[in-house]
Design a protein that fits this description.
By secondary structure, this protein is mainly beta. The protein contains two helices and eleven strands, in the order H-E-E-E-H-E-E-E-E-E-E-E-E.
Length: 192
Amino acid sequence: MKYFLVFILIFSVAFVAFGQVDYVKPATRPTAEGNPETDVSEMKLKDRLTYGGNFGLNFGDITMVDISPMIGYRTTNKWVNGVGLTYQYYEQRRVSFKTSTFGGRAFSRHMVYKNVFAHGEYELLKFNVLSRNLEQNPAHWFPALFVGGGVFQSFGGKSQSGLVITVMYNLIYTPNNSLYISPFQFRIGFMI
């Protein structure tokens, strides 16, 4: 039953929207392809920051709410490093179970080719572990070290909005010390 609850929790979070806002940067330079590219060395601090995060909702017999804001700093034209917070509320009415998960993450993303990126992330989440009879035990911290990559598909032209697909692998995954059922994580989201 524990694995079923964790599966439902993770499945509910797997398809959350990823929103991120990039401001239009005035300084540009030509790339190898001849298209203008923003030169971050000429940007103000506020223009180098990216904002976004996850937001997910699920209602019914199982209620799940996920709020995970993120902020990134564009260190070069191809690198973004940042941090994020996570809060998740989970309730299963059939067994009268409620819990909250909270924590944070640090991430780094590098554009390796056009719209293809490499992604690394360290995540640390605190969750109340369930016993076999669904009693809550003291909270426990669950670490995850994700590596992977993904693609960004623009909604059209030079738009900063688009679909983001990320596939990651948890390098420190162990079945008895993870909130995730599998070391592989698949995320679909949006940048706006």
